[in-house]
Amino acid sequence: MHVPIELRPSPPEETLAWVASRFGADARLGRVRRLRNAWASAVHAIDVVDAGRVHRVVLRRWARTDLAIDDGVVENEAAALAMLASLDSVAVPRLVAADPAGAHTDVPALLMTRLDGTDVLDPPDVDAWVEGLVAALRAVHSVALRERTLPGYRPWRVQFAAPPEWSNRPAAWHRALEIAHEPPPDVATVLCHRDFWPGNVLWRGGRVTGIVDWTHACRGPAAVDVAHCRMNLALLFGIDVADEFAGRYGPVAELATFDLLDALSWALEPADVWRWHDAGRTDLTYDVLTTRMDEFVAAAAGRL
């Protein structure tokens, strides 16, 4: 497993000092540890002690030098967390502070409260786990949107100019690429998490305790979230579990199209397998992942 070097070390002293200062001049740092299952940004759980009280927070830092940070993502996650702060239906972190320009931290950073629970990517009861994911996503999509609080949906950048060399279903990939050159379907919008998958859903005692990573939250079609979760479920367990998730969620417009758009945004490379191993799924190999992605794309293309 080769975790990118920028994600491994603890944040530098000046950044940790900024974290502590959010809780008062006399606040001091406790435990600092890297959280697994984060690949686009460095994520650390930090305890800050102030007057005997322990504040449990999470620091996200856009530290990778090989990935350009998208414009406005720090501000966007801060806006999403602020919008969701008063809700009871969706448990999300509370915004503590943000430093979008890295003026006080080593890189752009966002500080938020830490929720109870942990992600579950290999559940003992897949049926109950899928039901919990469905309920969590329905709760997200039921949130009333405030106009212009969040940006509108835009497809991710397509990672393929032609069917991948490893594919045994090139015709399906050609159909996907045709879809990518068409305007996205014009359907009703909801609060779209934009990265809803099991790695961003926390559990404790068999119950969902919260949803994290709202970096790319937007106003978008429900099928965007359903498709993204389905793609991940197909990679984790195979297409039957992905189909079960979609069936339990219920009908959404243009799901096959968004399945293909989501698949096209994934550039599976052998070196990327570390992400799955870091998340605890060391059983997933490059061959398994590419075979499952091929099946997912072929199934979606066949529904059009």
Model description:
There is one protein chain. This protein has 304 residues and is an alpha+beta fold. The chain has 2 domains: 5-113, Phosphorylase Kinase, domain 1, CATH 3.30.200; 118-302, Aminoglycoside phosphotransferase (APH), C-terminal lobe (Aminoglycoside 3'-phosphotransferase, Chain: A, domain 2, Alpha-Beta Complex). Helices cover 36% and strands 17% of the residues. The protein has a 5-stranded antiparallel beta sheet with strand order 1-2-3-5-4, with helices on both faces. A hairpin with a 2-residue loop joins β2 and β3. It is globular, with a radius of gyration of 19 Å. The relative contact order is 0.13.
At a glance:
The chain has 304 residues and is of the alpha+beta class.
For the record, the count of structural domains works out to 2
What is the correct CATH architecture of the largest domain? Alpha-Beta Complex
Q: How much helical structure, as a percent, in the residues?
A: 25-40%
Order of helices and strands: HEEEHEEEHHEEEEHHHHH
**Beta-strand percent range:** 15-25%
Query: How many strand segments?
Result: 10
Largest sheet data: 5 strands, antiparallel
Q: Radius of gyration, rounded?
A: 19 Å
- The CATH superfamily of the largest domain is identified as Aminoglycoside phosphotransferase (APH), C-terminal lobe
Q: Strands, helices and their partners?
A:
Layout (H helix, E strand, L loop, with lengths): L12 H9 L6 E7 L7 E9 L2 E9 L11 H12 L10 E5 L9 E5 L4 E2 L6 H16 L28 H11 L9 E3 L8 E4 L2 E5 L6 E3 L1 H16 L1 H11 L5 H10 L8 H6 L7 H17 L2
Antiparallel strand pairs: 1-2, 2-3, 3-5, 4-5, 6-8, 7-10, 8-9
Helix pairs in contact: 3-6, 4-7, 4-9, 5-6, 5-7, 5-9, 7-9
